[in-house]
Write a structure and sequence with these properties.
The complex is a heterodimer of chains A (114) and B (114). Chain A contains no helices and eleven strands. Chain A is mainly beta and 114 residues long. Chain B has 114 residues and is mostly beta strands. Classes of the chains: A mainly beta (114), B mainly beta (114).
Chain lengths: 114, 114
């Protein structure tokens, strides 16, 4: 089945540690996105990538880093510089170059700092 | 500065009645508008979209209306069912900064009462 897989579903991190969230898609989509959801707020864009080996900062990129070495993979690293990392993280992909208008989402990763 | 607004955080509707969820946007450059449905601890699922050149799109029980002059869109669900209870996100899509991007509203929690 085609789709987006995020792992792990739940992640616990100690303060001061970096942690990497995985996002893999087999939809052959060019564009991939990372969003963060906090209670009572919408989805805020962290980073996005339109093609392999290229990515752009979103609205809240501070304290995060990404890479896009392969078309199907877009891992997100939450660094110790992120002041409030506890949140629900969502990865998405889309294919704007082929007329697709919607983004497809993974099931999310809930990160908790302990 | 929110580009996509959903001014009703919550809405309760009786089963069988119509649910109307509203959304306002500020950027005239958006070319697609989308509605997503989200359950807790899951990724959003795409419901329905509308191009900026249309004023109505219908898919089964779901209809989206777009009023470009007012920069307003709405999602109608008729008849509402208990399984429709979820958070609904309005999103706008366009070429923003660099490449296709999606801007999400804060969401409206719909409760359909049996």
């Amino acid at each position: 089945d085609g789709g987006i897989t995020q792992s792990p579903k739940y992640l616990f991190r100690k303060e001061g540690q970096n942690v990497t969230l995985s996002c893999e898609q087999n939809l052959n989509h060019d564009a991939m996105y990372w969003y963060r959801q906090d209670p009572g707020q919408g989805l805020r864009l962290i980073y996005y990538s339109q093609i392999v080996n290229d990515f752009q900062k979103g609205d809240i990129a501070e304290g995060y880093s990404v890479s896009r070495e392969k078309k199907e993979s877009f891992p997100l690293t939450v660094t110790s510089a992120q002041k409030n990392p506890t949140a629900f993280y969502l990865c998405a992909s889309s294919n704007p170059g082929r007329g697709n208008t919607e983004a497809f989402f993974g099931q999310g990763t809930r990160l908790t700092v302990v | 500065d929110q580009q996509v607004k959903q001014n009703s955080p919550s809405l309760s509707v009786q089963e069988g009645r119509i649910s109307i969820l509203n959304c306002d946007y500020t950027n005239s450059m958006f070319d697609y508008f989308l509605w997503y449905k989200k359950y807790p601890a899951e990724g959003p699922t795409f419901l329905i979209s509308i191009s900026s050149i249309k004023d109505k799109n219908e898919d089964g029980r779901f209809t989206v209306f777009l009023n470009k002059s007012a920069k307003h869109l709405s999602l109608h669900i008729v008849p509402s069912q208990p399984g429709d209870s979820a958070v609904y996100f309005c999103a706008a899509s366009g070429v923003i900064n660099y490449g296709q991007n999606f801007v999400f509203g804060p969401g409206t929690r719909l409760s359909v009462l049996p």
